[in-house]
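Here is one chain, start to finish.
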Amino acid sequence: MLQRITIPRGPIELAGDLYLPDSADEAAPLRAVVLSTPGSSVKEQIGANYASRLAAHGIAALVFDPAHQGQSGGEPRDLEDPYRRGEDISYAIDALTTSSVIDSRRIGVLGICAGGGYAVHTARTDHRIRAVGTVVPSNMGTSFRGFQPDGAAAALDAMADARIAEGRSGELSRVNWLPDTLEEAAAAGLTDIDTTQAITFYRTERGRNEHSTNRRLSRGDSLLLGYDAYHLVDQLMTQPLQVILAGRKGNTGSYESGMELWKLAPNPVDLMVIDGAGHYEMYDEPEYVDAAVDRLASFYSNNL
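Its structure:
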């Protein structure tokens, strides 16, 4: 059962989809999970694949478009602000705690890819979150710093100059998350399996969605470069933790990121590595998604 909802977030609203088990009954409030999705993703993509399956396991699941993206409000558009992404999760929890069908004392979070880092960062200080699940989690700060050929500090210098130019022109610049086509990727020499699978998911009929623009506001990149999703995790994130990783490491860094999180967390409960799966295959390949959700459902049932 799917309910379209709006989530108040200060002066704007977030667009959300709440998946409820068919047996939802106000007399028996449900455990619930808020989903934090990958960068550039909207709620109808990866989040829906996991949320619908969790609901089939009897767990309510709320997935939403981040502020400034998808069908949610917020200007400027296409902003990927890791701090606001974390705040979005807390506002989603606010909405769940007002629902008569949800048990406000049994709310967890599930973060996928970049959303895994955002979920962890939020759970450190929002202890209404009682359990933390992650699938191929990524620390966007580590990832973005690693992408800079001349180093993060030099990249920040260039971004400072670019923002001055934006201020003078009044025009905001955007960059692609990914090449728009496989042909563009090949022309740029990007033929590795992870890039190919990412484009195949996001930019073809396999996973394309009209509200996912594949564009990122450039000025947000300075926030990502200074971000550390795992800062103080060892001291503050006391909740039970589930980590699910793709067995084929590839070049996304999510395997390494997930193992780092597993070692940092004070209360790691379960680590699952799905043999044969690649990072982007964990988004929608039924064999791998079903295996992950079966494990997550057990984790949430035991810890919420």
